[in-house]
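User: Hi! I'm working on a homework problem where we have to compare a predicted structure to a textbook description. Could you give me the structure for the chain below?
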Amino acid sequence: MKEKTFFGASLLAAIVASLCCILPIIFAVAGVGIVGASAFFAAWRPYLLGLTALLLAIGFYFAYRKPKEACEPDSACAVPSVNRKGRVGLWIATAFVILFAALPYYSGPVANFVLGTSHSSSAARPQLAHVSLAVEGMDCTACATAIQNRLSGLAGVKKAHVSYEQKTAEVDFDESVVTVQALEKAIADSGYKAHSVQAST
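Assistant: Happy to help. Predicted structure tokens:
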């Protein structure tokens, strides 16, 4: 029972620690803004991962500690079936913990799969303007994918590419339909800050 409690708590802590990358995908699907929630969980991520590791360590301690009373080598009390199941469950939980803890490193492909990517048409694009926007508050590639998905969905936006590594959004748009201010507002509505660093026609 103790093992189940600790690996359950460690799995929960790992999931909460990964919310900084899970929330952008969930909120993008729901069409609502993040309103700083992702940044909040990103700030607490190191502590939550530390708590996860501690809970797992305690779980392993209870699962593998030697009983105080002596047992005959092949007796029933030597390796109880319940304890064996607890150990298997603990290792399975550890695998899931690692999966969630590593989410920031593969959240981009996950977000691409869930949200899909908007591809612009190859038709003629008269009077297109281009703007480079600096984006603050992105914690992982899932954030970039969520922002890119939102920008691509705006009327007048022909192409949008958001880079988590460079913290920028490159947007080709029709000035007669959408403005730079509207692009910045769309990013702000997603829970991030943006300002133009370069614009051209």
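For your comparison, note the following. The longest strand covers residues 128-136. Confidence is low (pLDDT under 50) at residues 118-122. Good luck with the assignment!
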